[in-house]
TrEMBL record:
Pfam families: Ppnp. The lineage of its organism: Bacteria, Pseudomonadati, Pseudomonadota, Gammaproteobacteria, Chromatiales. The gene is ppnP. The keyword Glycosyltransferase applies. This is Pyrimidine/purine nucleoside phosphorylase. Catalyzes the phosphorolysis of diverse nucleosides, yielding D-ribose 1-phosphate and the respective free bases. Can use uridine, adenosine, guanosine, cytidine, thymidine, inosine and xanthosine as substrates. Also catalyzes the reverse reactions. Belongs to the nucleoside phosphorylase PpnP family. Transmembrane segments: none annotated. One of its GO terms (molecular function) is purine-nucleoside phosphorylase activity. It comes from Allochromatium humboldtianum. Gene3D superfamilies: Jelly Rolls.
Length: 104
């Protein structure tokens, strides 16, 4: 899906790591949420409250998921899931455009 219809977009950006990671929150009619964002090259650790699916629209990164010792390469067109109440790390290799869906 290349676009979302009938959503509410929060005006204020979510800004992390001194602006190296930014996103905007979309809220759908059913109450579900997604964020659309950009990550600059660098290494970042994130914490989750809800389970998430990170869809990489373009760019390239390595991800270290909870409980994993190694890193996994993710490229544009691929995604990965992160469990609720966990931490994961990414090493962004090139400017990365992403969509994060909060899972039920």
């Amino acid at each position: 899906m290349s676009e979302f219809n009938n959503v509410t977009v929060a005006k204020a950006a979510n800004i992390y790591f001194d602006g190296q990671v930014t996103s905007r929150t979309l809220t759908f009619a059913d109450g579900s949420r997604k964020t659309l964002g950009i990550m600059q090259p660098g290494t970042f650790e994130f914490g989750t409250q809800a389970a998430e699916r990170m869809e990489i629209l373009s760019g390239e990164l390595d991800v270290q998921l909870p409980g994993e010792d190694g890193w996994q390469r993710i490229r544009g067109g691929e995604s990965f899931d992160v469990p609720a109440d966990s931490k994961f790390s990414v090493c962004v290799l090139s400017l990365t455009d992403y969509c994060c869906s909060f899972l039920p």
